[in-house]
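Notes continue from the previous slide.

Worked example: a multi-chain complex. Inputs as given:
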Amino acid sequence: MGKGFGIPMSEFDETSPRVDRASAKTAAAAPERTTLPSTIAEQLRQMITEGELLAGTRLNERTLGVRLGVSRTPLREAFRLLAADGLIELTPNRGAQVVRLSEQDIRDSFEVMSGLEAMSGELACRHVTADEIAEIKALTFEMLACHARHDLPGYYRLNRAVHDRINRAAGNRLLTQVYATLNRRIQNLRFRSNFDRDKWNKAAREHTEMVEALDARDGTRLASILRSHLLQKCDAVLDATVPQTPARAD
Amino acid sequence: MGKGFGIPMSEFDETSPRVDRASAKTAAAAPERTTLPSTIAEQLRQMITEGELLAGTRLNERTLGVRLGVSRTPLREAFRLLAADGLIELTPNRGAQVVRLSEQDIRDSFEVMSGLEAMSGELACRHVTADEIAEIKALTFEMLACHARHDLPGYYRLNRAVHDRINRAAGNRLLTQVYATLNRRIQNLRFRSNFDRDKWNKAAREHTEMVEALDARDGTRLASILRSHLLQKCDAVLDATVPQTPARAD
DNA sequence: CCATCGGATTTGGTATACAAGCGTCAATCG
DNA sequence: CGATTGACGCTTGTATACCAAATCCGATGG
């Protein structure tokens, strides 16, 4: 270490600051290009959330690379991406391992998420437009429809959509980004929650209240609803989660 | 794309979940081993916050690699890390560029940070121990000493320490991690704020109030102080920041 | 049964090669 | 004269080979 430092490095090859010329163009519809590492990361992400790769599974670079048809280089970069999301753990010289969430980790995650949700609600009430409210209202009703006909997958999808919209309505790109990152982390847990009828009813009712609060632009109230809403979800998840800790009781 | 997919992938080389055997050992004082990409990332981070690499600067892989004495592979992984922190921007086929924060980005960052600070305060009041309070109190007094003798660098350092302690006292590892990440992002801005005497006095006073609120374990009050405290900081930063937008008014 | 040792395996990092994308600049065309 | 096109060089994206160091695992011996 410390090979080439302590050098002034006043000026070298890097071109000086310059204006972004991409935005000067006609803002063409970007062909949604993506890099291989992101693609790999997305695949692995999916494999993890679908339970194809269980918590604690060790990810062998070569084998996984062969399996996915990519070389080690982009695969390693994909690992960094996933590690940044907190989905895998990178231990020096020991490689990557699918992260094993302790009960405390789950609690922590939901605690932060509930805080972010509350923040979203607060800000959303300040910035939301009538159109956005209308859309959120519509999605909520669709969601309640799913609830009425016991369509759990549909309910999940719309539920997610509603919360995303509220988050977007907050008008803070960073908040949206952080929210998305944390969501990816706990998304796999969501599916595992056992939803008894009572809890589900309650959750649905709360969504009605959310819309009311949003309509009234009552940030404090919306924040409070969102927070407790998510914390209940946390309990449901914890109930359903078979203790993953090595020490078992049976 | 789509080379080796659609394959069942029921079972392959990856070893099944297993218990972490490292923790079984005597929990030896980890020699704090680190990987090259993290080291590189840290260096670049520093170069960015110190203003050695200006916003918008394009990062050439080969040149920068030679300059830092590393090959492209770990450098590219370092780029991913920095991109995850939001310090650089990675555009496919166009490489890395030091991120250029718009005024809105700064506003967004501080808004989220203020929310996280508030969350920290709220939780800290629930979990903080007497020892932690004592330490935070002590640090605050040291900080006020720096304020009294106009020692701005010392003030910054201790200020940072106080806020870190409060965050830690919240007892939520994820919160600490997210907080740290966002802090890295805006740290470079902090230095640029123009601190007139009045604002500085006010900030110092608020720190006294923070300690009071913490002592009384008044989470709501502490949260509120922290939030407004940081939002003021945001204003100070925005005042001091020469508009970086391409379009200038002079 | 536990600790230790040694070889096989894996990761971390470097170097090299090459295809494809991007930027530039000049020649060409309208 | 201005805009478009095309060729060239540079940079990034990915693959591959290679090696050192660390880890893992099984065998051996106390």
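Summary box: Residues 35-37, 70-74, 92-94 of chain B lie near DNA strand C (CB under 10 Å from a C1'). Residues 103-127 of chain B form the longest helix (25 residues).
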